[in-house]
Amino acid sequence: MSLSKDRRIIRTQSSLKEALIQLLMEEADFKKLSIKTVAAKANVNRVTFYSHYKDLDGLLNAIFDDYLDSLLKHFRDSYQSLGKFTSTDERLHLPIFEFIYANQFVFTLIIKGELIPGSQNRFCENLLKLTHREIKLNDELPIEVPALSYFSTYGSLGFFIYWMENNFDQKPTIMAKKLTYLHSKLFEEAEVF
User: Fold this and answer.
1) How many angstroms separate the CA atoms of 144 and 148, rounded?
2) pTM above 0.90, yes or no
3) Mean pLDDT (the chain, rounded)
4) Judging by beta carbons within 10 Å of its beta carbon (0-12, 13-18, 19+), is residue 36 exposed, middle or buried?
């Protein structure tokens, strides 16, 4: 019985998330959307909505969390079988660009940061989770790995904004090659494990 309840909860939350994304894709103004509209699109009532989320910001935050978690999982899954590689290896950046490209709409909302204040920082903080644990320097450097990670990650945010502002007009492989070039200059002595 609890398994079916869990499935219903997951199904309802998924329906609400899909409804909000669809409404936003139809160019609905998030600030003018009502819970009643989102609930109706998801074929649930307002009471059901409130049993899962406090408000529309909570629902949008849950969507962002899902996509950011999926980005990290995709990134980790894509490189873990590769073994050791360096900052000049495009395979390090390509999975991020591919995932964002495949989910352009939601990542545009996250990266623009206009709907949920701080979503840009959440994007960067999620990427930092990887670099803090998984970059090892070969030699002693006058700067710590976390400082390099912050600099690189927040600089990369500008790169993603540039790509988004240009309507994702360049393929992920081209963008990964460009970011790899920039990172290779920054992390010349770093290896990723």
Assistant:
1) 7
2) no
3) 87
4) exposed
Q: Which helix (H) or strand (E) holds 192?
A: strand 190-192
The sheet that has 135-137: what strands, in order across it? Answer: 85-86, 190-192, 135-137
Predicted pLDDT at 50: 97
**pLDDT digit string (tens) for 34-85?**
999 999 999 999 999 999 999 999 999 999 999 999 999 998 888 776 666 6
Alpha carbons 38 and 54: distance in angstroms, whole number: 13
Among 37, 61, 39, 68, CA closest to 160: 68
For the chain, helix, strand, coil in percent to 5 are 75, 5, 25
Q: How far apart are CA 32 and CA 46, in angstroms?
A: 16
How many Cβ atoms are within 10 Å of 32's Cβ, its own excluded? 7
Tell the burial category of 138 from Cβ atoms under 10 Å away from its Cβ (0-12, 13-18, 19+): exposed
| 61 Cβ neighbours under 8 A, 6+ residues apart | 116
Q: Which residues contact 50 (CB under 8 A, 6 or more apart)?
A: 35
pLDDT bracket for residue 28 (50, 70, 90) = confident
User: DSSP per residue over 116-157, as a string?
Assistant: STTHHHHHHHHHHHHHHHHEEESS--SS-HHHHHHHHHHHHH
